[in-house]
Amino acid sequence: MAADGDSSNHFSTADFGTLANDLSAANASWDGSSSHYSVSYIAVRMMHEEIKQAGGQGIKDVMTYLNTNQTNDLDDVFANLQDSDGNALLVNENTYAAFVTRFTGGAGATFMQNNLNLSNEDTGAIGGLDVEGSDGVEKTARSVVNDTANVTITPLSGFSVEVPTNGNVVDPRLAGRYNLQLGANADESIKVDVLRVDRSALGLNSVDLTTDTDDVITKVDAALDYISARRADFGASINRIQASISVNSISSQAMSQSRSRIEDADFSKETSALIREQILRSAATAILSQANASGQVALTLLG
Prior knowledge:
Elements: H1 13-28, H2 34-53, H3 59-68, H4 74-80, H5 96-115, H6 129-132, E1 156-157, E2 160-161, E3 165-166, E4 169-170, E5 176-181, E6 189-194, H7 213-263, H8 267-302
Antiparallel strand pairs: 1-2, 3-4, 5-6
């Protein structure tokens, strides 16, 4: 990778120097930031290539040494790492602190400028094309994670999302998340995941009892565990839905009774009121008739 003026990247010489200097900060107080991860990767890769140049296998020698000498640290690695003939594999310094000093003093920035390739799809993983050259295999974002078991129970396979299909047409019944409204309020809902359980989703397409029975048993066991887990999930969802149906039914009955009390007529009361009105009307008519008759009698007496 070239710095400055190269349209294939956006890094300057100063950028490489700034990133290299972060190794001191990462060494003093690791914060898990992107820059700390990045500069640590560059430092490991630089160690890897220097060990290989000295005749070793790279970072594998470091891990083998630390596994064999589990009480030792990186200072012991720099001081004692040797090949099978007793030749030192880290020849530039004999302490980790000295390596950090050289890395942050310009060696790290120079290494990045001369060895990083951001123009292809290789991730830069040790063992990949960028690091090992013709001895390596390109490690893309997909192939860097090997799917050797060919189990596709999860929708991720080498970081490639597989969309469930039926005849090459996306079928929403095969997989998806459904939000079911179970009550009258906005937060009274349940999310139900419906996932694939066909042979492809269970990783059983390539099973062959005639070649590798152990592999078949492993895949079938994984498929059974997956189905059992999904049945448990569905069972829990069904129980919640049934409980909500029961609660909603009781609530509906109570509301119907309340509405009836409010809207339905009280026939006894209404009948009594009708009879009362009829009696009052008859009495008024009788009184009016008597009053008319009394007037006619008075006229007769005067006449």
